[in-house]
Design a protein that fits this description.
It is a single chain. The protein is globular and about 75 Å long. It contains 4 helices and 35 strands. Helices cover about 10% and strands about 50% of the residues. A 6-stranded mixed beta sheet has the order 24-25-21-19-27-28, with no helix packed on it. Strands 30, 31, 32, 33, 34 and 35 form a 6-stranded antiparallel beta sheet that branches. The protein has a 5-stranded mixed beta sheet with strand order 2-9-8-5-6, with no helix packed on it. The chain is mainly beta. A hairpin with a 2-residue loop joins strand 27 and strand 28.
C-alpha cells in the first residue's frame, strides 16, 4: 500500500511539473506586453534606469565619442505606445529604438512613453560621452561656465592648441585666444552680443573642421555675483566676482548701503565692507535699471545672500574640483591656486582653514594637504570627507619651510570641490 501511495505522489509531482512548464512556455513576457490594452498604464520595462542620488540624476550610460547612443526599449502596452527621446530637453528621436552619434560631454537623457489613450510615463538619467585620447577637452574649474553676452569667457582644458573656433547657439566664434599656464591651458573666447539668455551646449572646431564637445554654458545678461559674497571682514576691502557687475549701482548689508566702490568692472566689484559685528548679515544690491542684483548660492540663484563677517582672511574663493584621477596637466588634478609668496608672508601659528563640498557622483571623497612635490604637510594624513564642511590646520614653521622648499602648497584627493581657503 505504501509503495502504491509513493507512485501516486511521484505521478502527481511529474504532472504538476508538466503543468508549470507548459504555463511558463505559453505565457511569455512578450505575450503579456503585446496583449495589454490601450487603456492600460504605460510602463518602460527595459532598460532599467538608476534611482536619483541625493536628488540628482544618476549616470545611465557611459561610452566614448566614437560609439553611439544605441538602445531599444521594451514598453507596455507595446501596440498602443509611442516613445520620444530628449537630450537636454531637445527632442532627438521617436520610436522604440535610437542610434545617435554624440559629441563628448554629459547629457540629460529623458524618454517619454505615451499611449493612444493619452497616458504617459518617463525615465531620466545622465549619459556621459567620453573624449578620445588627443581630443581637445575641457573641464570645469570654477564659475567660468556662467557667461555674459558681449564679454570674454574662459574654458580650461587640454589639447586646446588644436582649437580654431568655438560654436555657441549655432554661431561660430573665431575671436579666441589661447594661453598655457602652470595649471594647464586656458582658452578665451568672445561671447556673441546677440545671444539670448539661456543654457547652450558648445563645441570646439579644429583646423580640419572637426567638432568636439565642450558641454554646457549658461548665458545671462543679468548682474550676477558668483563668488565672494558669503564672507567678509568688517572695514576691509571686500571683493565680489561675477558677470555684468558693471551694471551694479549699490550694495546693501542689512541697513547700510554702499554706492562708492574702490573699483568696478564687468567681472569684479571691490568695496569697503561696512563696520558690522561678527556674525551673519543679509546682502542685497541694485542695478542701473532698478532690478535686483542676483547671487549664485548653494540653493540656486537668489536676490540676496547671507554674508558672514569674521576675522578670517580669505586667501582664495571659488569652486575648484579636485581629482587625482585627472591626467597630468589637467588643472583639476590638484588645487594649487595660492602662490608661494602668500605663504611666505604667513607666520607660524596661523590657522589655515579649507572649506570644501563633495561631488555626489564621485565613487569616494578624500582630501590631503601637501606640497607641490606631493609631500604631506607635517601632522596631516589622507582623510575621508563628505558633504559640505571645513578642515582646520595650524601652520607650523616646519610646514611653512616645507612649502617654500618644495615649490608651493597643494590640495590633493578625489571627489571634492575647494570652495574657500582662509587664514586666521
Amino acid at each position: 500500500m505504501k509503495k502504491i501511495y509513493s507512485y501516486l505522489l511521484l505521478a502527481m509531482g511529474v504532472l504538476s511539473m508538466g503543468i508549470l512548464s507548459m504555463t511558463f512556455i505559453s505565457c511569455s513576457n512578450d505575450d503579456l506586453i503585446s496583449t495589454a490594452s490601450a487603456d492600460d498604464d504605460p510602463r518602460i520595462i527595459d532598460p532599467v534606469f538608476p534611482d536619483r542620488e541625493n536628488g540628482k540624476l544618476a549616470t545611465f550610460a557611459e561610452f566614448y565619442r566614437d560609439s553611439k547612443l544605441s538602445m531599444t526599449l521594451t514598453v507596455t502596452p507595446a501596440d498602443y505606445t509611442t516613445c520620444e527621446w530628449f537630450l537636454d530637453d531637445v527632442k532627438v528621436a521617436e520610436g522604440k529604438t535610437i542610434e545617435k552619434e554624440m559629441e563628448a560631454g554629459t547629457y540629460d537623457l529623458k524618454i517619454v512613453a505615451t499611449t493612444t489613450a493619452g497616458k504617459s510615463t518617463s525615465r531620466e538619467g545622465l549619459v556621459k560621452v567620453k573624449p578620445l585620447d588627443g581630443d581637445p577637452t575641457v573641464t570645469t574649474k570654477s564659475f567660468e561656465r556662467i557667461v555674459a553676452p558681449g564679454n570674454v569667457a574662459t574654458l580650461y582644458g587640454t589639447n586646446l592648441t588644436k582649437v580654431m573656433a568655438v560654436v555657441i547657439d549655432g554661431q561660430q566664434v573665431t575671436d579666441i585666444e589661447l594661453e598655457t599656464t602652470d595649471d594647464g591651458q586656458k582658452l578665451q573666447y568672445l561671447v556673441p552680443e546677440t545671444i539670448k539668455d539661456g543654457t547652450y551646449r558648445i563645441s570646439l572646431i579644429d583646423n580640419e573642421g572637426k567638432r568636439y564637445g565642450a558641454d554646457l554654458v549658461t548665458v545671462s545678461s543679468k548682474a550676477l555675483v558668483t563668488a565672494g559674497a558669503s564672507r567678509a571682514n568688517a572695514n576691509a576691502a571686500w571683493t565680489l566676482t561675477g558677470i555684468n557687475l558693471d551694471k551694479v549701482t549699490s550694495i546693501t548689508v542689512d541697513d547700510q548701503t554702499v554706492t562708492d566702490f574702490i573699483s568696478q568692472n564687468s567681472d569684479e566689484i571691490v568695496l569697503t565692507c561696512p563696520a558690522l559685528a561678527e556674525g551673519e548679515h543679509k546682502v542685497t544690491g541694485k542695478t542701473k535699471d532698478g532690478s535686483e542684483l542676483t547671487f549664485y548660492t548653494a540653493n540656486g540663484i537668489a536676490n540676496y545672500e547671507t554674508v558672514t563677517i569674521s576675522s578670517e582672511r580669505t586667501l582664495w574663493e571659488g569652486h575648484h574640483y579636485v581629482s587625482w584621477d585627472k591626467p597630468d596637466g589637467d588643472p583639476n588634478k590638484t588645487f594649487n591656486l595660492i602662490g608661494m609668496d602668500v605663504f611666505a608672508k604667513l607666520k607660524a601659528g596661523s590657522i589655515l582653514k579649507v572649506y570644501y563640498s563633495t561631488e555626489p557622483s564621485a565613487e569616494y571623497h578624500q582630501m590631503q594637504l601637501m606640497t607641490d612635490w606631493w609631500t604631506l604637510l607635517p601632522g596631516t594624513q589622507k582623510m575621508d570627507v563628505n558633504g559640505n564642511g571645513s578642515y582646520t590646520y595650524t601652520l607650523t614653521q616646519e610646514a611653512l619651510d616645507l612649502i617654500q622648499a618644495q615649490s608651493g602648497f597643494q590640495l590633493g584627493g578625489h571627489g571634492f570641490y575647494v570652495d574657500r581657503v582662509t587664514v586666521q
